[in-house]
Amino acid sequence: MDWTSRISGKKYAIPLGERTFVMGIINTSPDSFSGDGLNSVDDAVRQAERFIREGADILDVGGQSTRPGAEAIDAGEEISRTAPLIKELSSKFDVPVSIDTYKSEVARAALENGAAMINDISAFHFDEKMAGLASVYGVPVILMHIKGIPETMQKGEIVYDDVIGSIKKYLNRAVKSALEAGIREDMIILDPGIGFGKTVEHNLIILKRLAELKELGKPLLVGPSRKSFIGKTLNLPENERIEGTAAAVSAAIMNGADIIRVHDVAEMKRVAVMTDAIVRAGGA
């Protein structure tokens, strides 16, 4: 599946399905779970430049931490953390920039400053204006499954009768809502939401059964990078989870992921290229 986006006179085309595309994470939140929050536009631009050199196809900019227990910040603060950076990135680099937000005000500011797509962890559930905004700007959207809200999603008992079935129903409804808002079929990407209201076992099941989500007929983005299910499986802190991330990324690609969202671009780009070679061996 192909998608194109025209923002600030630019056109981006990513032929999803030909290979796995790499989305590099650029955090401007000081309380990022992985400890990679950047404090200045210059620092973020340098990281973006390195990511592009290492093979990133998309840059995903976020100013609000969505780690478990994270408290929401106001839209103005989030805009101040993201819009100036996005303006700089979109003017310096010929790589699409995504805004990672669930607030329409933040998304609008990002789009006005050159963002080419919206990555919404709530699949438009947290802000009813987001779908209409995406439709007006004609940009691709990433719709993610989440159970609960970031502040409380990992608290208490997390129960699903069937985690894959629940995700499919949730995302299917999200797709219908997006289409009703006027978003084009070929502008919708889905994310199962690893780590967002799931236990370790749920996350492992998602990776194992990811191919079932391809039945929804949309490209899939998967973001397992450095997440706690890896840490709990391997008993390792965030900065020692690269091998676990590599295994999760490879499993995701083997089971149908089209885009991987990662912190460690150079290493995961190599994993993606190698896994793609295996998946496509013999022309299958």
Describe this structure as you would to a colleague:
This protein has 284 residues and is of the alpha/beta class. Helices cover 39% and strands 16% of the residues. It contains 9 helices and 10 strands. An 8-stranded parallel beta sheet has the order 8-7-6-5-4-3-10-9. Strands 1-2 form a two-stranded antiparallel ribbon. The longest helix is centred in the N-terminal third of the chain and has 18 residues. The two termini are 17 Å apart. The model has no long low-confidence stretch (mean pLDDT 91).
List the helices and strands and how they pair.
Blueprint: E1 2-7, E2 10-15, E3 21-27, H1 41-54, E4 58-62, H2 75-92, E5 97-100, H3 104-112, E6 117-120, H4 130-137, E7 141-144, H5 163-180, E8 188-191, H6 200-208, E9 221-222, H7 228-234, H8 242-254, E10 259-262, H9 265-279
Parallel strand pairs: 3-4, 3-10, 4-5, 5-6, 6-7, 7-8, 9-10
Antiparallel strand pairs: 1-2
What are the defining features of this structure?
globular; 9 helices; alpha/beta; TIM Barrel; 284 residues; single chain
What CATH first level would be assigned?
Alpha Beta
Based on Cα principal axes, name the global outline: globular
Helix content: 25-40%
From the 3D coordinates, which CATH architecture would you assign?
Alpha-Beta Barrel
Sheet/helix structural class: alpha/beta
In the CATH hierarchy, the third-tier topology is known as: TIM Barrel
Q: What is the tally of helical segments?
A: 9
N-end to C-end Cα span: 17 Å
Sheet with the most strands, sense and barrel status: 8 strands, parallel
Strand element count? 10
Could you spell the SSE succession in H and E letters?
EEEHEHEHEHEHEHEHHEH
Radius of gyration: 17 Å
- Average the pLDDT over all residues and give the rounded result: 91
Q: Numbering strands along the chain, what is their spatial order in the largest sheet? A: 8-7-6-5-4-3-10-9
CATH H-level superfamily title:
Dihydropteroate synthase-like
Strand content: 15-25%
Q: Would you identify the regions where 5 or more consecutive residues have pLDDT less than 50?
A: none
The domain tally reads 1
